[in-house]
Amino acid sequence: MNIEELREFCLSLQGVTEDIKWENHLVFSVAGKIFCLTGLDPPMQVALKVPEDQFDELTQTGEIIQASHFARRQWVTILEESRFSRAEWEKLILQSYELVKSKLSKRVRDNIGNDEN
Q1: Where are the beta strands (DSSP E) in 40-107?
Q2: Among 6, 42, 62, 114, which lies 20 to 30 A Cα-Cα from 105?
Q3: CA dihedral 80, 84, 90, 95 (to 10 degrees)
Q4: What is residue 69's predicted lDDT score, i.e. its pLDDT?
Q5: What span, in angstroms and rounded, lies between the C-alpha atoms of 117 and 113?
Q6: Helices 3-11 and 86-102, packing angle to 10 deg
């Protein structure tokens, strides 16, 4: 998955916004909460939230590390874009989106489906 495919998939999810933060990071959020971010400079490295039970397993490889400033909240940075197939990337991104979305209030979650994407 390249950065354009990543962007296209993230923006296809309900209620997602994109923004540039910290000068050169493309950030995808749901209801203002980040679920995916990547630097704009190559090579593409993507930070995502993962379930606690996957965190240790994923970070045991050299291609995936604890995300800087996010590790306490079970975030990883995938250092090699070829590490996963497109289907695996989409699954990880969707999983991160759902994990972040699940922490939102019920009222906010209910409104996400009513927002235009």
Answers
A1: 46-49, 64-66, 75-78
A2: 6
A3: -80
A4: 76
A5: 9
A6: 40
Coil, strand or helix: which one is 65?
strand
Q: Domain residues of the chain, as ranges?
A: 3-108
- The CATH architecture that domain 3-108 belongs to is Alpha-Beta Complex (3.90)
pLDDT tens, residue by residue, 22-65: 889 999 999 999 999 999 988 999 999 999 889 888 888 788 99
C-alpha torsion angle, residues 31, 50, 67, 89 (rounded to 10)? -90
In the chain, what is the greatest distance between 2 CA atoms, to the nearest angstrom? 41
Tokens 């493309």, residue? 26
